[in-house]
Amino acid sequence: MTATVFENAQIHTLDPARPHAEAMLVRGERIVAVGSLDECRDRAGVEARRVDLDGMTVLPGLVDSHLHSALYVRGLEQVDLRGTTSLDEALTRIGRHAATLPSDAWLFGGRWDSHKWDRPVQPTRADLDRVCPDRPAVLPSIDGHTTWVNSAALRRLGIDAGTPDPAGGQIVRDERGEPTGILRESAGDAAYDLMRTSLTGDLVALLRTHLPRLLSVGLTSIHDLDGQDCRAAYETLYARGELPLRVHKSIPSTALDEAIDRGWATGDGDRWLSTGPVKIFTDGALGSHTCLMTEPYDGEPGNHGIAVTPVEEFERLVAKAAGAGIAVAAHAIGDAANQMVLRAYARWQESARTNPTVAGAVRRLRHRIEHTQHLRPADVPLLARLGVTASMQPTHCTSDIPLTSRMLAGRDLASYAWRSLLDAGATVAFGSDAPVEDPDPFFGIHAAVTRQQADGTPPGGVDPHERVDVDTALRCFTEAGAYASYEEHLKGRLTPGMLADFIALPADPYRVEPADLRDLTVALTVVGGVVRWQR
């Protein structure tokens, strides 16, 4: 097996024993040596291939611990409403996209944010009917927890004035009781499910075409939170030898029984495709006014959000999954939802310890909370004490600044509190939640370090005591992601025996100004010792 020496580089290994090096010897998928040029050349032998990195900075490959890759690649070929500043602008984009589609095709896309429109009103089916009178249209909001549909889609979905609200969801209605075209949480599930079918194209082909975009921003591993269609597509790519990065694939709660019947367990698989936790929604999102909060939303005295999965059902699912060796990844954004999840995990741990047949699961399974956005301060040490992984997306903090400053001002909350969680001893794994946010991890590193928007506001960052330094942010995008997928012995650092997953950048993140972190670019991405992408 031919060895390769990657040399003439500034290597940040993230290994405290040897944090810096100038060369790295790789044989096959593994790192053999990291150190000086002479050390690596001596180990390599005269037949080794040599790659001159021209003084670039090398980092371990970055891990996105929360990404919806099927939604992301499909969205690249659908109408994108991000950045629209008014309902009319959104409708114009929709109309233009509709004109490019076959007459019998559904229209999909979305990512609209009415909070950023000049008149922040919720759109309706009547608005959408103006530009899509005949073809069904399904357009999730930026956070994915509200779905905007037109009259044709409502008819095809069988939703009318007589349709009851489903458990964990709401069909918004007008004064006559007619659906307005806004479906919240589980009320939009049937519409969302259509976005996971062949109506949106060949997912295998879409992933093959667009996954290089993730490589281009330095991602060598992802934790995917999409559905079983996405798992099947990845299995196809893997079988064909066409999987360019490593995938830790979650299980949707709707497929938990299937996973148990098939004997899947979290951590099963290999270095390229492994089984992750079961994803369970417990609440919604702040922008949709559906995340579960202790205090009601301002101006909405009866609205504390939506408990998508009630506590009794959540506890049942935790016990069921854990009993089969499957960890739980609970979506929780509001403080009441996070508290509910933590209390449920604590009760499961206590009951499991007294049951010899499942006591080992307490030590082995690494339960997670996805987003972990708003916590009661007292729950920060509890999360750490329980050993729960906080799967957080730093750009949510900066994107949400207008929302949180208006909706949560004056509340006693630890919001996007990654510094507090780390100080308490918790594992914090960073990701993007793409396509909700851009998958570029350097956007996330910038947000974690500065807690500022791209334009530098607010001065000093929001809740500046929660900022972290560059080294910590990088470790949350490397070591912590590897830990969350039970692979800390394989990746997250550049040390002998680890997988040869790394990236090279023209600039050093440790040396640039914090404001410039989001502008960093990747020149080279290597996965398993093979160059998978190069600028």
Structure, explained:
Helix 4 (125-131) links the parallel strand 8 and strand 9. The chain is globular. The protein contains 19 helices and 24 strands. The strands form four sheets. Strands 1, 2, 3, 4, 5, 22, 23 and 24 form an eight-stranded mixed β-sheet that branches. Strands 6-13-14-15-16-17-19-21 form an eight-stranded parallel β-sheet. It has 535 residues and is an alpha/beta fold. It is 31% helix and 22% strand.
Task: Summarize this entry quickly.
InterPro entries: Amidohydro_3, Metal-dep_hydrolase_composite, Metal_Hydrolase, YtcJ-like. The protein is α/β, with parallel strands linked by helices and 535 residues long.
Radius of gyration: 23 Å
Structural class label: alpha/beta
Helical residues, percent: 25-40%
Query: Distance between the terminal alpha carbons, to the nearest Å?
Result: 27 Å
Total count of helical runs of at least 4 residues = 19
Approximate strand percentage: 15-25%
Oligomer: single chain
Sheet with the most strands? 8 strands, mixed
Which labels suit this protein?
alpha/beta; 8-stranded parallel β-sheet; 19 helices; 31% helix
Set down the secondary structure blueprint.
Blueprint (H helix, E strand, L loop, with lengths): L2 E10 L7 E8 L2 E6 L1 H8 L4 E4 L4 E4 L1 E6 L1 H7 L3 E2 L6 H12 L8 E4 L14 H7 L5 E4 L5 E4 L1 H7 L11 E5 L5 E7 L3 H6 L8 H14 L2 E6 L3 H12 L6 E7 L3 H6 L11 E9 L29 H13 L4 E5 L2 H19 L5 H6 L3 E4 L2 E2 L3 H8 L2 E4 L1 H6 L1 H7 L6 E2 L2 H6 L3 E4 L10 H10 L19 H7 L2 H6 L17 E4 L18 E4 L2 E5 L1
Helix pairs in contact: 2-7, 3-4, 7-8, 10-11, 11-13
